[in-house]
Amino acid sequence: MKTFYILGMILIVLGLFFRSSYLHRSLNSDRHIESQILNLEWPSVQVGLREAKSLVREEREITVAVIDTGLDTTHPALRHSVWKNSGEMGKDFLGRDKSSNGLDDDGNGFIDDLHGWDFVERKPLFKDLHGHGTHIAGIISSHSSRIRILPIRYYSSKTNGKTAIRNTIQSIDYAIQMKVDIINYSSGGYGYSSEEYRAVKRARDAGILFVAAAGNDSLNSNLQKYYPAGYDLSNIISVTALDKSKRVLKSSNYGSRSVDIAAPGEAIFSTLPRGKFGKMTGTSQATAFVSGAAALILSQEKERVSPVLVKNQIIEAATIEGSLELKTRSRARLSVSRALKMKGVFESLSQNETQVVREVFVSGPALATSQSSQSFSSLEQVARMLEEIRHY
Ligand SMILES: [Ca+2]
Ligand SMILES: [Ca+2]
């Protein structure tokens, strides 16, 4: 027992100095349970997904890059959600399939990248030997038929920390090049990388929302930052995991200043490679719920909108829980239905005004008469709007 304890401490200390993906560190805590019971129920109820789906029009196709372990692109439940590179489709001048002619037909620097790229093996992506990426993709795509998953592989069990960061940066740049709307990053480590920071910043400047996991080490991230979730960039939403009873999982990292929001993450049922299904647990899964929600919200916009707007919409409409007071910055958990109803409210607001709207939304108009409201000329109008939203 003592040996395990000492070994555990060494691993934790190493983790603080060397970037190692928690995919690597938490493999044992991720629970693969073969398909027994369809358990899509509680997470859907907790985030209001059914109600949200009844509110949407599904205007636009949204591409979500899943930077992970790959994807089973032939999985029956995912096949229709897999992103296709239009520049690598159809026939070339010799009548060969562009997807397998050994040429970079769209000139993006990657040969035959019909379904994304594998930065571990440096070749076109089509499989997932691990399972993590396929599981994440299943959660995201379950939010809307208009979501396209662009899988990018940055990690295998043999990838060391330094290579993981290099692959991550290249994956982010590939996602930017392919003009995705959202990047889902269900991983991370404790080492700050200025190059990785700059890559996520490039994504911000390209209008891409970056949804990142808070990590699975039971740590307070206010004290021990976890990256990329912990970079100070406006396009990042960091996510911790909840159980069925809306409590943060014991294994999840948390932080009143460092983690934005909480979402379902315990024993989540989703897709696994070779056409299978199963359950996995962790902030990875919670992150996928926020990416799916963001994609559903973005699918309602006629054109691209600022990632900050979507982030605010999700955070400000989240459901406040007393138990999350010290766990997340928003003190709240994801609600897709409320976020959808907030559409448009934040478009013309300043930070001060947003604060007031938040008070109105949380406490009701009667209580929103704080000092901050003095700078807000149309408080009553916003309050009315929010009341209408509530009774949608
Ligand atoms: Ca290409
Ligand atoms: Ca080709």
**Largest sheet composition:** 8 strands, mixed
Shape: globular
CATH class of the largest domain: Alpha Beta
Order of helices and strands: HHEHHEEEHEHEHEEEEEHHEEHHH
Order of strands, widest sheet: 4-3-5-2-6-7-8-9
Cα distance spanning the termini: 57 Å
Write up what this structure looks like:
- This protein is α/β, with parallel strands linked by helices.
- The protein folds into two domains: 21-347, Rossmann fold, CATH 3.40.50; 349-392, no CATH class.
- Helix content is 33%, strand content 14%.
- An eight-stranded mixed sheet has the order 4-3-5-2-6-7-8-9, with helices on both faces. Strands 1-11-10 form a three-stranded antiparallel sheet, with helices on one face.
- Helix 7 (194-205) links the parallel strand 6 (182-185) and strand 7.
- The longest helix has 17 residues, at 161-177.
- It is globular.
- It starts with a helix and ends with a helix.
- Bound molecules: calcium ion (CA) (2 copies).
- One calcium ion (CA) binds at residues 88, 98-99, 101, 103, 105, 111-112.
